[in-house]
Amino acid sequence: MSNLNLIDSHAHLDFKDFVNDQTDTIQRAREVGVTRIINIGTSLTSSQQAIELAQKYPAVYAAVGIHPHDSNEVNHEILTKLKLLSQQPKVVAIGEIGLDYFKMYQPVDIQERAFQRQLELALELKLPVVIHTRAAESATIEMLKSIQSTDWQGVFHCFPGDVALAQQVLDLGFHISYTGVITFKNSTAGEVIRYIPLDRLLVETDCPFMTPVPHRGKRNEPAYVYFVAQKIAEIKQISLEQVAEVTTGNVERLFGIRE
Ligand SMILES: [Zn+2]
User: Fold this and answer.
1) pTM across the whole model
2) Is the pLDDT of residue 75 over 90?
3) Angle at CA 32, nearest 5°, toward 35 and 3?
4) Distance, CA 67 to ligand 1 centroid (Å)?
């Protein structure tokens, strides 16, 4: 057992990639010091499965929401169901929600409406949001500004931006989270990570995707958030223990969870 206390703030253990070894995967995470995992919903079904995982495993918490890829699902009925799901124990956020103009699986107007309605739902429920943005950074910022809330709580996950975008995101009150992508040789995130105050940083795997070096090319899993934290420690020139302690405190405060 490790003395570290890390949290994987963004995982998808409900995806079919983990169907045969969910329990072992959570145990492997525990052994390297990943004590908790936030499992993020991407559709109504995935959100329900996230809650089931949280009920089954003490280490797992759930977020419920509809991903931009599935934003055509969002209507009044689904929003009502999400609201009901959000009342379940261990549901700590609305997400993942956002805009993805890179894959563009749904038209812009459908994505924007789904994003807006789920942002409004999160504000109504006083829950933080987990935001996915890809090739849609300025539209995402504009949407947040147009809602004109001063109460934003949440995280931009798998952060794709430069220092200028980080500054806007921080000014709005959000946290910023990084995946294994920062361990890749061609990553340019170092400058941005040096800029972001440690008390606004989160680490995540986004597993089964975004596998860090030295496991790049294989399936990702929560244990590997260790390598993301290690990279942040190297960039910020502080200890791994310090990164673990501060980022874990950040997740606990943001999502209102305690050991
Ligand atoms: Zn994700």
Assistant:
1) 0.97
2) yes
3) 75
4) 8
